[in-house]
């Protein structure tokens, strides 16, 4: 089956050289599927944008399936940054006969794009589509680090079976999926009054990384190492406060500011490890002044800007580009190793594999902050090191 079977083309009236874009705008820089489906194997594209027009499993937010075209109206009027972008817009994935059919289509599309070294930007649709985004990695035979920006965990009880999920329970499907290839889950921005304590206990038991909204109130850059650790990221527009993004039926008075959301998106783009991102739950029905569409367009712009400013400094080789720091623990159990990039000043922590777990690698590298290093220098073990080691067992 060809990928073209899943997509409906875009209107030639809106997306063509004659559509009225200025030469500096992304509308004249991107390539659009309007007639003949492009040959993606020619290696001409870095990023693929496409919509998923399915909101059947979005809880209390019907209408978010219309998001992609409203997003496009704002995004392609933005000016290209200081780089030469190679973006393809594949149009919209048609809603399947059932929601499960849509999941299969999204899974296949994301998987094929990643294999072609093209980063998919998914404009949904409900956040349950995160489950299909995750399934795309099954055929890639790799462990997955999933980061979700959301005010909730979407981990409550559900009564559905099979592939079907709902936007407020899809994480259950990911955690219970077999084979299990989820290495780590991180939540950014949860609000405690939306989260039951049993869910928090589950996160702690699984050594997952969950972070309250308040942790980033004074410094949004604290999200950077969390995002840098992700293979895939899912962003719920409902995580942004309603005053900045009202176009979500579940929007609340608290959440990230618009500029913070853009910073997070740029961090995601800069991550050498991240291979797919989805923006979900934008509902044009509540976007009376178009502000949320503009914000979403700017978030994607910042992601693209981050992508074209990737440092490609993951600590592998050559060693001359990195600095190694060592710290001894007070309890005498040994020393910890940290790696700092000379190119970006970003930090990683080396967590050794337990004996016999990995035949090919001696340690696992996890992005961290300078504060983790200072904690180790003071003789204490950083929580991130311990949680990571437990997941390696």
From TrEMBL:
It comes from the Bacteria. The keyword Metal-binding applies. The keyword Metal-binding applies. InterPro entries: Ureohydrolase (IPR006035), Ureohydrolase_dom_sf (IPR023696). Gene3D superfamilies: Ureohydrolase domain. Keywords: Hydrolase, Metal-binding. Belongs to the arginase family. This is Formimidoylglutamase. It comes from Pedobacter panaciterrae.
